[in-house]
Amino acid sequence: MFFNSSINIEGNQVISDAKRVWKQRPDLHSRIWILLWIIASSIVIIIVSSNRPIVRYDEEIEVLVNAMNIISNVLVSGIPIFLLSGIIFGTSTARRHTIVSQEAGMNSRETFLRNLIKVYTLTLGLCISLSIALFLEPVIFGIRFREPTGTGFFIYFLPVLVSTCVVALILVTFGILLVTITDDIIISTLVGSVLTISVEIIVWWNSTTGGLGLRYLSPFYFTKVLAGRLAGYDPPNDYLFTRYFDFDIPLSSILVILGIFGIIAFTILFGSFKIFQYNSSRWTTKKDGSDDLGTWESIPVLSKEQLTNKRKMKIRRGVLVVLVASLLIGMTITTEYSTTTLIEQTTHILYESPENGEEILLGEWYVFSCEIVPTQLGLDNYLRYRIDIENWANSPEHIEFYYNMVNMSSADFQNLNETEQRDLLYHRSLVRPEGGYMHGIFAAWHDGPYAFAMKAFSSENETQIGSLYCSIELKQTAK
User: Fold this and answer.
1) Which of 145, 179, 348, 410 could be joined to 451 by an S-S link, Cβ 3.0–4.6 Å?
2) Taking phi first (over 0 means left), then psi (-120 to 50 degrees means alpha), and beta for anything else, what does residue 112 get?
3) Per-residue pLDDT at 64 exceeds 80
4) What gap in Å lies between CA 457 and CA 466, rounded to an integer?
């Protein structure tokens, strides 16, 4: 009995000592928050890295591609960015530091700038650490490139670091606005993460057409294409750049967009500072019975002014949630509308048969040149074809069809021998009197001429004379 009492007394003494140290060492609060941020960021990075696309490491450029795939997904998750801004500006520890600083004679501008420097410094530290780790990975695991260019892959480190830092600083600036509006670390982190993830989902859903314009707002896409352009990657055809970085945009356009983002960021900082001034003037502290400053909280007996401030804060948080929801809904609707419009603008009929079809002689090759309209807005081009049998006429019961798009001129195709020609095409057998059609889509990612080739003949005798009527439609689309 006495032994148990002694244990209880000693346990209570330990807890009491811990509380006293906690109150006397407010610097520990900040360190614990930063430790939690490091742990949370590490978990996100590990999850993203374990679910990244397979890396082939054919060339050195794929080290950059792999790094940007991981970094862009980490930024999209929002947790490392918005949690950090919330820790520096939205915790009780942050409020207490602000109050102590202001009581010591520091004005709100200086306090805000100190917090801003902390956020930016830690953000840059995260970007630098992550970039270094991703570039050390090939060294640690002894990666050998299948088709090395001889340039080495560390030349891509600076583009990766710069693009990561630029986008991360823009995002954390937006995070500062969220936490100053809500004055709450949890709400600001949730709202920021939901917003970036939702934007990414909307862009991904419409990634081929309508989502193109929104890619500039997507940390995932913009970070990758910025790194690609800063690296000076200039492949022999646009397809390779799009394959690595998802879409193509000139460096000059990227700089214009960055300039716009910079102006927005400075505007956000000014607005955040004004809200910070308003918030800090209404923060209060309490004493815990000693001369040590306790944690921040409202005065127990709320005055009329404090109740009004509390209602205003709830309204601000509610308005923010409504605005974010409205923004996402608006983006979805706008994207769907722009998708329809853009599909119409980027659809070009390359060839179309007369209304009742055209006569196709058995045993004859029909080759159509497809003059592609230049790529618009960085979109990928696709060639689509459809062949409908309108009338079997005097054709035999069994017909063999060869057909497809080819990445060569019509003259080059006709110069091939019969075997070479057929090897490039699809083959299908049709039986009369069934109606039939053939269709397909061809990704026109490579430069150069394209042509559509088709041939029909009797299954029993390739030299048999006959004909049938087909409607042929060839068109270029962006989706």
Assistant:
1) 410
2) alpha
3) yes
4) 8
Peptide bond into 159 cis (omega under 30): no
pLDDT in tens, 299-309: 444 566 666 76
Per-residue tokens: 266:
């400075």
- Beta pairing partners, 399: 430, 458
Record the pTM.
0.71
The one-letter amino acid code at 207 reads: S
And the tokens for 253?
A: 């356009």
Q: How many residues make up the chain in this entry?
A: 479
- Report which of residues 113 and 55 the model is more confident about: 113
Residues in CB range of 342: below 8 A, 6 or more apart: 209, 210, 212, 377, 379, 478
Q: What is the rounded distance in angstroms from the CA atom of residue 404 to the CA atom of residue 449? A: 14
Euclidean distance between CA atoms 288 and 307, whole angstroms: 23
- With tokens 């308003």, the residue in question is 278
Q: Tens digits of per-residue pLDDT, 428-438? A: 988 876 667 78
Mean pLDDT is lowest, of 56-60, 189-193, 407-411, 472-476, for 56-60
Query: Tokens for 216?
Result: 């500039």
Region of residue 232 (left: phi > 0; alpha: psi -120 to 50; beta: else): left
Residue 193 sits at the vertex; the CA angle it makes with 187 and 198, to the nearest 5 degrees, is 125
Q: Decide if 227 contacts 64 (C-beta within 8 A).
A: yes
pLDDT tens figures, 218-249? 888 889 889 999 988 887 666 677 778 877 77
**Alpha-carbon distances, residue 189 vs 73, 81, 146, 326, 384 (angstroms):** 16, 8, 42, 18, 45
CATH assignment of 349-477, among 3.30.1540.20, 2.120.10.30, 2.60.120.680, 3.30.200.20: 2.60.120.680
Instruction: Quote the distance between the C-alpha of residue 286 and its chain's center.
Output: 45
Those residues with Cβ within 8 angstroms of residue 40's Cβ, 6 or more apart along the chain or in another chain: 79, 80, 83
Q: Any residues with CB less than 8 A from the CB of 391 and at least 6 apart, and which?
A: 356, 357, 468, 469
Q: Whose CA is closest to 224, among 76, 120, 335? A: 76
Rounded Cα distance between 297 and 301, Å, is 11
Q: Which residues partner with 477 through β-bridges?
A: 382
pLDDT tens per residue, range 198-222: 888 887 776 654 445 567 778 888 8
